[in-house]
Amino acid sequence: ASAALRALLLQLCGQVSGLEVDLTRLKESYKHGTPPVPVLLEYLRQAVTRCRNVYILLDALDESPAENSRAEVLSLIETLRQWQLSGLHLLVTSRDVPDIRDHLPSPALSQGIQHVALKNDNIDKDISRFVSFQVDNDRQLQRWGDHREKIKSYLTRHAGGV
């Protein structure tokens, strides 16, 4: 979460008046380490309130390690949602993974939050065609002979829309 917050602040730095000066002071006050997450969150909240609109995209949340990092990022997302800042727009993408689904339940549309499922048969067909082409044309897989069909089937079934 700390790395994500620092990246967000850095990206906002050139667009939010005075943020560069604030971050320079913050850096000087933590010369021997990284500011703690609550401090970084407060700086982000202040930066967001100085803007009309801030759009934050967190892509492929399911690819962050499930043990510690993902829980920290999920907590960060929950904190951003709790701020209820009208100018803060958050888009999070992820495959449908149980711990993410459980942590970020789909609230009512009246809260301005939407859940959009992107899985459909056309995506699965595209993945199947791609996997088949790659497996059929990979020279190293030629030696696997009849096992290539099993490889294609397994990869296609477990692609999860990606």
SSE layout:
Blueprint: H1 2-13, H2 19-29, H3 37-49, E1 54-58, H4 69-83, E2 88-92, H5 98-103, H6 121-137, H7 147-157
Helix pairs in contact: 1-3, 6-7
Low-pLDDT ranges: none
Number of helices: 7
Q: How many beta strands in the DSSP annotation? A: 2
Name the beta content range. 5-15%
Structural class of the helices, strands and pairings?
mainly alpha
Percentage of residues in helical conformation:
40-55%
* Cα distance spanning the termini: 24 Å
Largest sheet: 2 strands, parallel
Global mean pLDDT: 86
**Approximate shape:** elongated
Oligomer: single chain
Give the radius of gyration.
Answer: 21 Å
Give the SSE order as H and E letters: HHHEHEHHH
**Main β-sheet, spatial strand arrangement:** 1-2
